[in-house]
Amino acid sequence: MNNEETEQQNNNIKHSDPTKDAIFGHGFADEIGQYDWDETIRMVDSATDADVRRVLAKAKRNAKPLTPEEFGILISPAADPHLEEMAQLAHRFTQERFGNTISMYIPMYVSNACTNKCVYCGFNHDNPFTRTTLSLEQVEAECNAIKKLGDFENLLIVSGEYPSLCGVDYLEKVLQVCRPYFHNLTIEVQPMKSVYYERLTHSGLNGVVCFQETYNRKKYKTYHPQGMKSHYEWRLNGFDRMGEAGLHKIGMGVLIGLEDWRADTVMMARHLRYLQRKYWKTRYSVNFPRMRPSESGYQPNVVMSERELAKLTCAFRIFDHDVDISYSTREAPEFRHNMMKLGVTSMSAGSQTEPGGYCSTPEALEQFEVSDERSPRAVTEDIRQNGYEPVWKDWDAIFD
């Protein structure tokens, strides 16, 4: 898609919005300006050992939820010596809310066509690779292949952001094909209008996952120079549009490797609290994917260690006892094994990150490389050996 086509796409969204709002609408983008990015970094970096002890004491009393700023203290360098205590608290709160369970899900990539030019992504529009968008017959074949891998009932449908190929009409048909096979359907696609999300719920949609990637407004355009994803406010307010549509579950995330991960996750914690206040009937999940190699060849600006990811996970569980914390196959098997007891509540298994990957070994473009290549059977056996029970189904068609 050239610049002229991209601009036409922007105009189509702007002028066809049935709500008659401006292209970006209203939502968290109107509030995020009160939080300064650099000040957030200074706030986290200036935390002291006494601050950490105070926040942990409050968390143990469990009288009031922590604030996003108190969460920032728990991920500060000052909290490093307290990781064991944080792990114990995270384990306690996770068991109180979720018990000894790990919810299982699997992604199905239906298209790697994309109009965006994100510099870090294998689906970048300018990458000269074969693009594949599955036909409905191929989607059904993938469903059959996935059902042979395990008892999966939670399916995450993923596509690149190409509205003319993978817009609401296509997604509606994909959901209708998948619904007889799975009880819970979630999509990770381009942000849409609220009326489109609501329309898809009538075809079986339960939830939406969307990654803001980074909350750093000044740097956002650097990573997303062209395409609809380049519009910071449109993407940020997409979560409000999901809430307005009455979705059962909203998934959030930042991409670890672009900007200061502490500032990004504090911003996400602020965003989560905002959404919980405004759309309190909706469930929420969070994910902290660390950048993996992609066809773009992009190298992360920030490298997060496993110890730092463990601290972030524990801190987020202490911050919010109810949120679902998800780990994908980006992470290594041993690390995922260890994090089951420290806040993680859902995992993918057997993931293929290219369209058609469950039926064959296609030559299509992967979005990223996986690290945990174990079969679903091996992952679930590891979960059981760790004293946990894999949960395949946590939603039923009767609730739609």
Summarize the structure.
40% of the residues lie in helices and 12% in strands. By secondary structure, the chain is of the alpha/beta class.
Protein topology:
Layout: H1 3-16, H2 37-45, H3 49-61, H4 68-74, H5 83-98, E1 101-111, H6 136-147, E2 154-159, H7 163-166, H8 168-178, E3 184-188, H9 194-201, E4 205-209, H10 217-223, H11 232-236, H12 238-244, E5 249-253, H13 261-278, E6 283-287, H14 306-319, E7 324-327, H15 333-339, E8 346-348, H16 376-385, E9 389-391
Parallel strand pairs: 1-2, 1-8, 1-9, 2-3, 3-4, 4-5, 5-6, 6-7, 7-8
Fraction in beta strands: 5-15%
- State the shape: globular
How many helices? The count is 16
Distance between the termini: 37 Å
Can you walk me through this structure?
With 400 residues, this protein is α/β, with parallel strands linked by helices. It has 16 helices and nine strands. It has helices spanning 3-16, 37-45, 49-61, 68-74, 83-98, 136-147, 163-166, 168-178, 194-201, 217-223, 232-236, 238-244, 261-278, 306-319, 333-339, 376-385; strands at residues 101-111, 154-159, 184-188, 205-209, 249-253, 283-287, 324-327, 346-348, 389-391. An eight-stranded parallel barrel has the order 1-2-3-4-5-6-7-8, surrounded by five helices. Strand 7, helix 15 and strand 8 (346-348) form a beta-alpha-beta unit. Helix 5 crosses helix 14 (306-319). The longest helix has 18 residues, at 261-278. It is globular.
